Each structure stands twice: as C-alpha cells, then as structure tokens.
Known about the structure:
Blueprint: E1 3-9, E2 12-18, H1 22-28, E3 42-46, H2 57-60, E4 69-73, H3 93-108, E5 113-118, H4 120-128, E6 136-140, H5 151-154, H6 171-181, H7 187-199, H8 204-213, H9 220-227, E7 231-236, E8 260-262, H10 269-272, H11 274-289
Parallel strand pairs: 3-4, 3-5, 5-6, 6-7, 7-8
Antiparallel strand pairs: 1-2, 2-4
Amino acid sequence: MMNTSDIRIDGVNLRYAANFDSAMLRAVGSEAGAPADVAAPAIFFFHGNSSSHASWLSVLESEALKPYCCVAFDLPAHGGSDAAAAATDDYSLPGMAALLAKAVARLAAGQPFILVGSSLGANILAEMLLFVHPVGIGLIGPSIVGGVFTPDKALKPDPRVALCFGDAISEAELEDLMDVGAASKDRRVRGQMRGDIRAVKDGFRSRFAAGVAAGKYNDEVALIRDAEVPVALVFGEDDLASNTDYLDTAGFELLGDKMILLPGAGHFAQIDDPGGVTAVVAALAEAVFGDVRR
C-alpha cells in the first residue's frame, strides 16, 4: 500500500508517494526534518514533463522493491506539489534540481540511495548531481544533454514533442501528447495521464522551455559520467520522443554493460512496462546495495 505526504522545502510543498509506513512519512515530512534512522537504503523516482508520481506507482508497489524505501515525487507545479514559491520562482533545470536535492537529502537521512528519472526527471536527476551523491542512477527514456549531446540529438523531430513546451493544449493536442508519453491505450492509464497533463500549473511548460532556450542547464551527460556509479539506461522500443541510440557513446558505467530496450514500451516506459522497469531498478539496487532485508 502506498502512502502520500508532503515535504516543505524553501517554502514549496512537494508531494510524494512512498512504500514505507505512515509514521515515518509524518516524521520525514515535517519541518523538523528527517528521523535519526531510516530503515533501509532508498530509491527516489522523478517523473517526466506533465506527468506525476502516479506514473511510478506500479513500480513502487512491486514485491522486488519492498526491501528498499522507495519515494516518487511530484515535480514542482505538477500533481499535488506547489507551484514555485516567490523565493524559488525557478523552473529551470538547475533550479528544480536544487530544490529536489534538498528533499532527497532530508528524506535519505544519511542512507545510501539511488536516483531514477524518466524523461525530464532524468534531466533533473543529472543536475542534482551537483548537490547529492547517489550510489546508482536509473535513466528511463532520458533526454539529457551536454557537449555533443545536444537537444536535437536527444529528441526526435516529431512535431508532437513540441506540445511538451506549451501551456494551451486543445483536446486533440492532449491526445497527441499522451501518445508521445506512452504507447498504452488503456482507459485507466489514459485517464490518469489526461488528469496529470491538465493538473500542471503556473505556466510550467512554457516557463521551463524558456529556461532551456536561454541555456539554463549544465552538461548533464558529463555530470552522470563523472559520478562514476552504475547507470541503468532504459528506453522503450516505441519511444516517440527520445532517440534511443543517442547516448551510445556517452561513456557511462552501464549496468550489465548495455543499454536496455523494452519492446512495446513508449517514452514513459514505467507506464507501458512497469514489470520491465522494475526488474532493471531491482537489478541496479542489488548491484549497489547488496542483500538488504527490511
């Protein structure tokens, strides 16, 4: 069973779902900070543009990840999280990374942890490496950039991808945006995705795009490479947004020495193939945490 709570960082309430007990959730979510002892190593999950923590729930609920404290955030201005506060009015990648890094540091409470990011969540994860030091990294349908790995190399030229960067979306465009996100046509899945897209607030998409256009990001590929930790690199075979081979020469320390391609999955592979993504994250956790029992 999942529990949800908020953690307040720099005046911003960030919503998250977690697979550990509600008493601990109340403790770590308070202004007083984290408890003195978190029960197990942690795995933190970050969703993509116009999604929410709900995209990770099937992964968090899996038996394979029960030995770990798993936390999935709503990004700022998404889902149940606040829009940016006046003091942190920043939807740039470095700005969001700084905010979420503080949340991770508080919730991890000194335990080793893994960071897993999908799409935009992978960009934010990479930028967070300026502030926190995970023992493993998971990239799901990433579009990370830096050096020769420019945005045009990362993203496909599908005009529907541009919908991720505009605020006014018609019903027809909303359908297109969902198609970019996931291959699934399941009504429940599509209903959740529709609600997540409509829940985005504060002009996030256009303001985030303005930051990218202004060059407000770091060399994310170098940040991940220089972290020198195992990286699980996963793409959906039917990804309509990211080029699945663009990171072939990135020089990451890849889990199993290879990129993983999930058949039938789209850009948000955790939605289309939660079992496949869970298996990869569990393998990464086993590789970096060893045998953990909670």
